Amino acid sequence: MKLLVSPPPPLFPSSPCRRSGKAILQKHFHAVATRESCKCGEANRTAICRVAETHGSEQVKGREPLRRGTVSPRLPVPEHIRRPPYDGTDHLPDVNPGRQMHDRESIVHMRAACELAARVLQYAGTMVKPSVTTDEIDRAVHQMIIDAGAYPSPLGYGGFPKSVCTSVNECICHGIPDSRALRDGDIINIDVTIYLNVGYHGDTSRTYLCGEVDEPTKQLVKVTKECMLRGISACKHGVSFKAIGERISEHVNKYGYSIDPFIGHGVGTIFHSEPIIWHTYDYEPGFMVAGQTFTIEPTLSMGSTRCEVWDDGWTAITVDGSLNAQFEHTVLVTVNGAEILTKC
After folding, report:
1. d(Cα 199, Cα 262) in Å, to the nearest integer?
2. Which domain, by its residues, includes 303?
3. Is 174 annotated as ligand-binding?
C-alpha cells in the first residue's frame, strides 16, 4: 500500500496490474499475485477465462466508467486512542514473515476486534443507497470506530488517506472514498479494518448492491460470497493451505468468472503477515495450525483480471471495465474447522 518513487524489491516480482507512471501498488489489504490471471493449473482454464471476458464485455455496455471524485482531508483521531505502529509515517510495512498464533487470552482480544469490525461493516452497509457518497460512508465508519475507542487501521497505512476502502463497480480493491455519489445499479465493496485498543486488528469486507441491480451482477455477488464460504469450509488444523484455493477455484469454474490476483493474509497484532492465502490453485506451502488467524477474501471478475492502478497509487481497476465483487472474513483455525471471527 504505497506510492513509491524508488521502491524496495516487491514481495512478488511481477503483477498483472499496470501502473501509471512510477506508481507502485504494494500490499495494503491484499497483495498482488505473481502468476498470469488465467494460469490456474487446468487444461480448460484458458477457455473459461475467455468466456468470462465475453461476459464482462457485454456487461460493460451502457455503464459509465468509474471516475474519481474529490478526496476530502484526512479525518482526525482523538489523542487518547491507541495507534498502530505504522501511524505517523508513510512507510509501507513489509508483510511480516511470522505466522500469528493465539492463546486463550489473545483469542478473546481477536474476537473483540473482529466483532467490532463486523458491526461497523454492517452499519456501513445500511448507508449504501443512490446519491450517498463514499466520502459520507468513510465519515460514518470513522466516527463509529473512534466512538468505540478504536483506530481505523487503513488510515495512514503506507499513506492511505482514508479510514475505509470503498471499491465501486470495476474497482477491484483499494478504492479511496471521495465525492462521487453512488448510483442506482452500482455495486460497492466496503472493506473495514479496526485496531482495537488492546492492540489487535479485525478485518472484513463485503459487496453491497445499490438500488436496482441486474441479475447477472447479482449472480456475481452471490457466487463471490459462496466462494469465500467454501474457502473457509476447507480450513482445519493440519489441512494444507492449498485446499482453500482449490475449493474456491472449483466453484468459480462452474460460472466462468475470473479470480482476481489479490490475496488474503495473516492478521492479529500485526495488520499483514504470513501466511499468504491464495484463492487459486497450488500456491502456498504448509499446513494450517489451530490458533492461527488469517483472512479469506476472494475477488471475482466478470471479465479480465488485468488491472491498472490510478496515479493515487491505490485504486486498482479492471482494464476492460468489468465488474468485480469481493467478500472477506477473518477466521480462526480450530482442531475441528474454522471459527468466523467477523461474523455479525
Report:
1. 26
2. 17-21+28-64+88-340
3. yes
